[in-house]
Design a protein that fits this description.
Elements lengths: L7 H7 L1 H12 L1 H12 L9 H14 L2 E5 L5 E5 L9 E6 L13 E3 L2 E3 L7 H16 L8 E6 L9 H6 L11 E5 L6 E6 L1 E10 L3 E2 L9 H13 L9 E10 L5 E2 L2 E10 L2 H23 L10 E10 L2 E2 L5 H12 L5 E5 L4 H5 L4 E4 L4 E3 L7 E3 L3 H16 L3
Parallel strand pairs: 3-6, 3-7, 7-17, 8-16
Antiparallel strand pairs: 1-2, 2-6, 4-5, 5-19, 8-15, 8-17, 9-13, 9-14, 10-12, 11-13, 18-19
Helix pairs in contact: 1-11, 2-5, 2-11, 3-5, 4-5, 7-8, 9-11
Length: 404
């Protein structure tokens, strides 16, 4: 068990080696931002993180981390060995991937204090902070009691479905016994993600005989049925607490304006902070999909082929929660106050979902600075007070890792 006592952060920050690491983070802030830009300029879509992963692995090796390698899912791992015999490592992760396709133009534009380039904040900032912390700890001679494993993870965004962190915590993996997990994701120096928003994602395809818009009139129309499905889904309601959401993000199908489509499809995203609510939402939503297709089939011309529906799960992120009175959350709150900010606990979907669902104390925090336009080509980053966020992360890590 990780134990953090009141006042720990202040005393920890003043310890000579930690004070040296803090000073180094501030002194080398320009280098951190330069690395952040360098990272952002390496395209890294889900399932296409290799180039960025190789670059991060090379930096891990340059810093002097031990056991630097890439695992079977492409995660980049490096270790700062602990000096004690405590069970369970502290895992500090930042995801390698962005939401942008590999051919997205990556050109830096500077306006005032803002740097514009896709992915500059999510998650080039988290990765740059991971490198800065590793460099500050090793250069300052900090010796954690618990082993600290630094990880650049794959597949955090979109269709990646948290595949990297799921691999880290698979049943036969070495991290099920981790003492704590901290994700560095995006910017901000106040928010602490303590609740994991779970999600289920589906591709729903309605198929039928198709045909000519006039000659085959009366045949079941997959696009018309899809409209009925959309209407049924938009009318679905659950109690407002625990919070939930339903979103149809993409639709498609058909070949021509004068052809009855053989297929029409949609992609559905269901979310909730509570696993039970997410399960209920899934059951109700899919029941409405099937009922809408059955209803559409009753209107087809007798003797024509019926519509069918296929439901494929294309993503599953578990819900979970880290207790607000846990030592890890206490450490993050105290570190936030240390840098002069007021901590704010929130819910989100991050790499921390997986360890939270397994009962491992886990949080996600921003790595400093401010940002906007997330997940758009207009994404920007402002580094004013950026070092504060990295100092907060360093103090949180060392509070739970312990100091020899």
């Amino acid at each position: 068990m990780v134990t953090v006592l009141a006042g720990t952060i202040g005393r920890l920050a003043d310890e000579p080696r930690i004070a040296k690491a803090r000073a180094l983070l501030r002194r080398t802030d320009d280098t951190t931002v330069e690395e952040q830009l360098r990272i952002a300029m390496i395209a890294s879509p889900p399932f296409g993180e290799d180039r960025r992963g190789e670059w991060v692995a090379a930096r891990f090796a340059d810093i002097g981390l031990s056991n630097v390698h890439r695992d079977g899912e492409g995660n980049v791992l490096g270790t700062l060995a602990g000096t004690g015999d405590s069970d369970g490592a502290i895992i500090v992760a930042a995801h390698l991937d962005t939401v942008f396709p590999a051919d997205t133009p990556l050109h830096v534009r500077e306006e005032g204090h803002r740097l514009y380039v896709p992915g500059i904040a999510d998650n080039a900032r988290g990765l740059a902070a991971l490198l800065a912390i590793a460099r500050a700890l090793t250069a300052s001679g900090v010796a954690p009691t618990r082993t600290v494993v630094l990880a650049g993870t794959t597949g955090e965004e979109g269709i990646g479905d948290l595949r990297g962190v799921k691999y880290l915590f698979r049943e036969d993996g070495g991290f099920r016994g981790a003492a704590a997990f901290i994700a560095l994701d995006g910017t901000d120096s106040r928010r602490i993600v303590t609740s994991a928003v779970g999600s289920k994602r589906f591709r729903i395809a309605i198929r039928g005989p198709g045909g000519h818009a006039w000659a085959d009139r009366g045949s079941a129309n997959a696009a018309h049925a899809l409209g009925d499905v959309l209407s049924a889904l938009s009318a679905l309601r659950l109690p407002p607490r625990p919070a939930w959401s339903l979103n149809v993000g993409r639709i498609g199908g058909g070949t021509s304006i004068n052809a009855i489509p053989e297929e029409a499809w949609l992609e559905l995203d269901l979310r909730s902070e509570a696993g039970e609510t997410l399960a209920s939402l899934e059951e109700l939503a899919l029941a409405r999909v099937r009922q809408a297709v059955r209803s559409a089939n009753t209107h087809r011309l007798r003797g024509t082929a019926a519509l069918t529906v296929d439901v494929d799960c294309i993503g599953s992120r578990p819900a979970g929660r880290t207790r607000l009175d846990s030592n890890l959350v206490d450490a993050a709150k105290e570190a936030t106050r240390y840098i002069g900010r007021r901590p704010e606990v929130v819910a989100s979907s991050t790499d921390a979902n997986v360890p939270m669902a397994l009962g491992i104390p886990a949080i996600a925090i921003g790595a400093g600075g401010e940002s906007g336009g997330m997940h758009t080509v207009g994404e920007w980053y402002d580094n004013r007070k950026g070092p504060d966020g990295i100092v907060r992360a360093l103090l949180t890590i060392m509070a739970v890792a312990g100091q020899d």
